[in-house]
Recover the amino acids of this structure.
């Protein structure tokens, strides 16, 4: 009977120890989760991201820069100009803007070969939304009226009831959209 009391006492001590360790592990998990969330929040603050959508944070600038400076700004914040990878994403972006914004699409390296800043081609993403004029002349048109070197950078804008891309001179000052995955 004495050994039974010791056995029961031992079981009680083990139960208390198990409960204590469980509480400590739970507290550690909570601390770890809070640390992860705080880190993500601080990363978002670094970019001043205002909107998130499907695992990406977006920053919609209120100031204007040329395409290269816009990209440099995004990169300095750990992001890049937006790469549009679906019609859903494009519709979301269009709902957030009222005027032209730079996107991460360019043919600066090879005229007519449009590539996203992450090196994906339009074929890779499967998304294209170039503006098509009723006259038949469509974007991208590399028009040289504003800039003799042509138009090698893309903007997204809501125009004539739809979301379209336009190629414009990279030297123009436009608002821009940065994108950061989290």
């Amino acid at each position: 009977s004495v050994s039974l009391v010791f056995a029961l006492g031992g079981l009680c001590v083990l139960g208390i120890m198990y409960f204590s360790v469980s509480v400590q592990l739970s507290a550690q998990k909570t601390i770890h989760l809070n640390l992860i969330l705080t880190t993500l929040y601080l990363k978002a603050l670094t970019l001043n991201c205002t909107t998130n959508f499907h695992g990406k944070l977006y920053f919609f600038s209120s100031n204007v820069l040329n395409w290269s400076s816009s990209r440099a700004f995004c990169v300095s914040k750990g992001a890049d100009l937006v790469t549009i990878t679906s019609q859903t994403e494009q519709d979301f972006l269009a709902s957030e803007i009222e005027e032209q914004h730079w996107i991460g699409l360019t043919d600066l390296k090879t005229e007519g070969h449009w590539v996203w800043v992450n090196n994906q081609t339009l074929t890779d993403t499967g998304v294209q939304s170039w503006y098509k004029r009723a006259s038949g002349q469509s974007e991208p048109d590399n028009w040289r009226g504003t800039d003799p070197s042509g138009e090698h950078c893309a903007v997204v804008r809501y125009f004539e009831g739809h979301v379209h891309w336009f190629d414009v001179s990279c030297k123009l000052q436009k608002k821009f959209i940065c994108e950061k995955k989290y």
Remarks:
- Residues 117 and 169 are 17 Å apart (CA to CA).
- The chain is about 40% helix and 20% strand.
- The domain at 49-181 is CATH 3.10.100.10 (Mannose-Binding Protein A; Chain A).
- Helices lie at 2-47, 67-76, 87-96, 122-125.
